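User: Fold this, then the next.

Assistant: Folding the first:
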Amino acid sequence: MRNYWENGHRRVFITEKIFRGDAFPKCRDWLFLRMTGFIFNNKCFLMKKNYKLLLILFVSLAAQGQPLTIELDHNWQFKKSNETKWYKASVPGTVHTDLFANKLIPDPYFGINESKLQWIGTSDWEYRSLFQVDEQLFKKQQIEMVFDGLDTYANVYLNDKLILQADNMFRGWKVPVKSLLKKTGNELRIVFFSAKNKTDSIAKSILPFILPDNARVYTRKAQYHFGWDWGPTFITCGIWKKIKLEGWNGVKIKPSIQITDNNIKLIQKADSTGTTFYFEKEGKPIYAKGANWIPADVFLPRLKKEDYRKILQSVKDANMNMLRVWGGGIYEADEFYDLCDSLEIMVWQDFMFAGGMIPGDEYFFNNVKEEVKYQVERLRKHPCIVVWCGNNEIDEAWHNWGWQGQFNLHGTDSARVWNNYKRMFIDSLPKWVNEFDGKRPYISSSPLHGWGRKECLTEADSHYWGLWWGLEDWEIFKTKTGRFVSEYGMQAMPNMNTVKYFTNPTDRYLYSPVIKAHQKASDGFKKINHYLVRYFIDSFHLKNLSLEKYTYLTQCMQYYILKNTIVVHRSKYPVNMGTLLWQYDDCWPVASWSITDYSRQPKAAWYAVKEAYRDDVIPTNDSIYPKYLKLLKPVFNVTNVENTLTISSATDAKYVYLNYAGNELFPSDNYFDLKAGVSKIITFKNIHSAKIILSKLKIISLYDILSWQ
């Protein structure tokens, strides 16, 4: 027996030990015993022989206090607020997915539909459900309505009575509703107000003062919904997590949740280079090998446990031991952390702030404190979480991105914005983390120094974007590898099967309007092409590539650069103690830095990372740029036995790609090199016989792209 006994705001931790008479003098809170009449005038009248009586009494009372729970996930409808017709809705869900399910809009991810659907994010929406209350639940003395997640600005009415005004996507809400409930004919109605309109209104009200760098900073909502350089702008709303009724008699009993001590420490101490930054478990240093994690969909309720299992198993299969949950997304679902626990994947957990300064009013701070309390108390049981981080790139942005000039923030305005930052991330958050967790370390921002400053190489973690944004070569890491590189990356196109998902055949040419709509990075194709010309192909032949060949070549380039970058990072051990590439996954089909695309299939770079992160071999750098290789036409010989293929070639072959024009294909290796006369055995997890894929298998190598040489 291990429970909390609640009475008002006081809680008594009760275990079996409390029923032994010799334990009572050590009990610091005798509230429970007072309630049961065994303490009078601060004296305990319970003898050892009577402890069984107390145990029986407690078990009886505990049974009454055990909550009875039902989910309100049926009979939901939705409509636009200024219209009258209702449509069927799914809960949990979002307004975009409900509109799509009712065939009121096209697939938001297809073609250029994103630009056509922005009206959804500037509209208000209503949801309603009619429900009955189970007789057993209705008889309970206390009943609460529990909202696990409302996105974001919502007025909630129960039987036409306003019971809640929510304004934070990251908080749970509980409302006493016993007096408002009926046995039958209850109506729960939720009005969602446009987060876009709300934030724009706040920003407009304080002009000419502008808080960098977007009005989204005023709302406690997933920031990537407002668009990012790898994601679309779909400003969602809806009931994105469960709604429940909980009823109980007497005093509610909650299961106790321990704060897990995973014995992992963050070591930051002075050394000959500067200051260390590494994780240590039971005195042994850990070299972190991993990636950054973004939400795996824009429309979050689409993600089910099996989706998380599939993606996170591929993380483990790539020989990774850490994921950084990025601060512009969400505090992830319980299933995510459960799986990271079981797979022994460490989690660097950002709080949900990214790339923007914050308001300084008391209401905002109090709202964030409740968010932190809710999320830390929810997540602190997970041993996978090894560090809390205040935000993503805000400190760096303030000091390096020119915001003061861009937004005319000088003198007292500048001081006020920076003081609000310090109050939140340097003063308040560490205090709240210590209050609600107390076991794990906290750092204020990732990174602490911009990639153009020398300190990023000697202390704290580093986001080194000289590669890509600075158009530097991967070789720059030979002289500029930080203590813990928590962001770096290279873009590539998604897999061709994924391209076909969001295009019509007439769209499938390089730089078509649809292809450009699925590239969100500033000068994204221009930067990709810079690196293609640097390492793979001349500009004349580049511009004549088909979309399919361009897709293949960008993935080879991402493979080549990430492999060689990781090799350099690992060669700097023990000065460097971590490498987390940007990014692992995608939230929609897009050209991005991900190494698995929205289909959850690996891109070429996934295989490179899998090899570079191995512990049983020491990876080495490529000695020659691919564009200088002397390639001969390979003739492949392919045989199969059960779920394996054996592939060989009479000549060397580079970046051999097994392209299957059918369902998902998960080969044990892909984009591999073949030495002349040496066979390669490939296995497949998801098929019993490799023979069935032979008729649709197309093998491509780098020779097919560079055969003009």
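Now the next one, as you asked:
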Amino acid sequence: MKNVMIVMIGLATALMWSTMSHSQQDWNWQNPIPTGNILRSVFFTDVNAGTAVGDLGTILRTTDGGNTWTPRPTGTTNSLYGVSFTDVNTGVAVGEAGTVFRTTDGGETWDSVSSGTTFHLTSVFFIDANNGTAVGGTAILRTTDAGASWAPQTSGTSNSLLSVSFADAMTGIAVGLSGTIRRTTNGGEIWTGQTSGTTSGLRGASLVGSIGIVIGEAGTIRRSTDGGATWTTVTSGTLTTLNNVLMIDSSNGVIVGLNGLILRTTNGGETWAPQVSGTSNPLHGISFADPGTGNAVGSLGTILRTTNGGSSWTTLSNVVTTGFLNDISFTDNNTGIVVGGGGRVLRTTNRGSTWTEQTTVTAHTLYSLSFADDGIGNAAGGGGTILRTTDGGVSWSGQTSGSTSTLNAITLTDASTGTVVGSAGTIRRTTDGGVSWVGQTSGTTSDLQGVFFVSPTIGTAVGGGGTILQTTNGGANWTPKTSGTTNTLWDVFFIDENTGTAVGDAGTILRTTNGGNNWAGQLSGVSFGLLGVFFTDANHGTVVGTNGTILNTTNGGVDWVSELRPAYSTLTHAYFVDPGNGFIVGSSGTILSLGDGTTSVHDDQAGNDSAPTQFVLEQNYPNPFNPATTFRFSLPERADVELAIYDLNGQLVIRLVNEPLPAGFHEVRWDAHGLASGVYFARLSSEGFTRTHRVTLLK
């Protein structure tokens, strides 16, 4: 990853970077799609419009039945556990520490609402346009104004409540730990305990008319035929934890649980039959827009859909891998490579819009990656593995490293010269493009985790116990430097011969301005392990680490600002193609992108009976829009295409497309959340064809 070729960045680039600010909504998921976070709940107001919520404040919105999802900003990292809508416009999401968000525009924007509690709210249910109930901890909250305000009700229990459901405005049930069932027949003024016949935790409840179903741990199912007054045991056929239940009507219902479990009833819950879900990920939420059309959501952003009442399910979310990803590098603005566990290599040619797995020649974990140019690169990993590519990562061949040590980091300064470091102080160097790798004396037995060369002769390696080694003669000699820490250092990055940053355990950040001779600690503000660092100039840098940590500096590390975490994943490395486009990889297949609002150009020929015969730019839809819109255009032949946005003064705002594209129908989505309301112009230029459309952003 530590490719010296990308270090030199001019003043104009630095100035462009300085105008940017990173925020939670800037980081977008490229794998899994639409998110890698756990989705806890989902609600569809009709077969097309739906909202899913989950960990770290995740809110996703779809208007096409779940085929595509758009993240909506919340400004919180509190997890959201429940969502419910009163109508197509008004909805409420609830979550950690009493979090309540409310929308009145169909889920496009969400405003925080005071709940009056700090309990984790785990479920919310609306019985009509105004009346709703939320539960969590020992709290029960009630709203009579569509979620604009909430008043506490007396739950009468010391057990945590996890789910709530109402049959009508008066009759409802809330369930929770230790087999707790509370029931009201007066709209929640009084809640009384019911005998469940179990001490298992109850996680889900659904009440339709007189039929009630509650479910929970160890496959527990209890059924009521008198509106929740009495309960009988129903056999689930499993000991798997059941997370949620929805009775679609008095006959048909669906239960979801761990290991991708889906159970279905067609006789009011008397019997339940397992269904093929197509996933082994835990499922947490379920919603049906009509008796046939439903969606389920779960871990790793899993989204499933049924159109036949739950008899069969289709996966709508997209996952290339859930394996651990360790490093990322780009050979040009569009072509990137990721390496990780099991010898995995992923590659993109469209700036991460899609990633495909490449064939490699090893099963060893690959920990590091570096490219000398757009064709030649090396990857290093376990068991002394070194792989070489000469075609930009399309194909890989093994090289003899001369070592069986774990190789943790590799760097190339040109097509011939590279250095790799690893366990027990291993350092090996090639000057012949990897035909041979020669051992060097490091003078340490500490595991070396990171290495960076600013030239073929000047380099720095870091590792266990705060080890920092420096060479000025291509590794013929390595000199230890005082780091001032005993924490493991995981990565190091230099922007020139003098200025470098090393990061490590317990929030360690070190900075040198004299070529590594002296290192000074910087205040990171976190105690998490910091695993990767990347700088674009002396002032602007990004550090990533465990527990989804992302830190940014705009003043050389004098101040480090922690971003709202986009993921709980361990984030291993960051890479910036240019100041406006960055990428982060990590555990559970995490690939995040920081972009300029451009979403991939999609080939949209499906459903078109014939190829286009002329250049066409259609009017964007929607228009006016807030904050995103989609442009569709057609090409009669393969051509260089530029689709750009200009303001009223004719100043370029952004290039959405600037690349050759094949003949066919294409579309590109523009997210303008960072721009002011007003009139803009979209111009498509290709092979002498130019077409401009007026577009309006209304906020």
